[in-house]
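Retro notes
What went well: the complex prediction finally ran end to end.
Inputs used:
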Amino acid sequence: MRCSSGWGEDKVDRQTIIETEELTKNYGSQVAVNHLNLQICEGEIFGFMGPNGAGKTTTLLMFLGMTEPTSGKVRVCGFDPRRDPLRIKEKVGYLPENVGFYDDMDARENLRFVARLNRISDEVSHKRIDELLGKVGLLDEARKKVGTYSKGMRQRLGIAEVLIKEPRLIFLDEPTIGLDPDGTNRMLELVRSLSREENITIFFSSHLSAQVESIIDRVGIMVKGNLVAVGSVEELAKRLGIETEHYTLEDIYMKIFKEA
Amino acid sequence: MEDHFSSTRFLLMSALIVMVGVITASMVGMSIQEELRGMTKPTLIFLLLFTSTGKLFSFVQFIGFFGPLMGIILGFDSINRERMQRTLSKLVSQPIYRDSIINGKFLAGVATIAIVLVAIVLIISGLGIRLIGVVPGQEEVLRLVVYVIASILYIAFWLGISILFSVLFRSTATSALASLALWIFFSFFVSLGAGILADAVAPVNQSGGVDPAMIEKHEMVQRISSYFSPMSLYGDATSTILDPMRKTTKSVMLMGPMERLSLTRFQSPLPFLQSLFIVIWPMITMVAITFLCFGICYYAFMRQEIRTV
């Protein structure tokens, strides 16, 4: 399987990690996701954008086998989420929008619990938890109950929790929503370092934001269940004939949105 | 799960049970002299610790009444609290089977119940041995074990019910209220309804000639319909196992010579194995309904879509 899209100077063929074919999900007569064809390559940061209710979360849930597609095919890490959801969940981390924690436990206890669910022994997880807390910058607050954490700290703890299983692929559902600019930057910096240093594929669902634009390799834009555009920001700008020097993802997005 | 043991409500609840247990046991201990007066050859005194009503109520009555509440308290928010604090979507995105979440909830609850009940029965026994100085015989111990098992089953049924409601309802308050409503329904209305049904199917006329067949039918209808309530199943099971003087699970009032006959028959206790034979059926029924409601719960939970919003 080849991943055909090249971006930047990095034109090496890479493995496809997510592949969908005519993937559709209906809720009653309402179409949440309409014949989605998408390929995500190993190691890229993919921004999945669209307004609220465009079907982004539904798509994520179908990738994880947490909701049943109405029709079409999906393969994530080479497995079919409908048949082997557990194999996928072993390799894939998912950070839901507004992640929840057990508020009466501290950061370490929360992480240890998730590690146990992933069948990681306490000896192994003990070291790894401190490492991860250091990475997300929560080591100093590790003893506090998670109930006292700010929104940004919770999101970073969420990242640590996702990383504990050493995933190949991470789904982030609106990870920057409700964060202040500083929190957003820290979050995005963290995401970028995961991609660069550990070669984790990142599938990033988000509203539009100029900050998000800075870290993504490719973007897919979803409007009312339809994937209306996929490609790198440059590609999309070229395709749409935006010639100005300082175009932003927002310009592209607005243009596509008007056409759709 | 350690959750249960560290929570405040668990502490409150077990404190209440221990308190009531100790109080009733010591009351019985003090009044047991009176109770035994008039009995020619008292047998199975030790069980009186649990069944004697003393001045207020017996320990067995208390558990029969409070046990369902205990199950409901442990279970009513098990799934929807996870949903509310948004940890459920995290749990289902881990590499575990979805049923293990609900199995874990149920088994943790049952384990908690078992530990509390065994502990309290041991406490009361210890107290009883000190207070009245009667050491339980083998048969009494066996009967107590059966009683504890039946109680665990019974409370587990209520735990299952409350977990079912916590799967079905998003709000913890709704599921708590629904469980309580069901509990009130079973504890008060089913026995009432059973009486009414029995009167309708086989009316027993007080003034007219009494037809034994009719009385029998009346009793049967009443008993069978009250078996729809797990409460009466449990009540029958425990009173038979702990009070061996009772032979029938429901007493028919007999008058005249029949009365004397029945009284003499009730003088000697029913052997343990015979009690067990009577008790085994309500117990199997309780297991069956527990599994039934757990099965529904399982099905509902597996089919539910778990979203964050």
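What we learned: The interface with chain A takes residues 82, 85-97, 305-309 of chain B (CB under 8 Å).
What to try next: split runs per interface for comparison.
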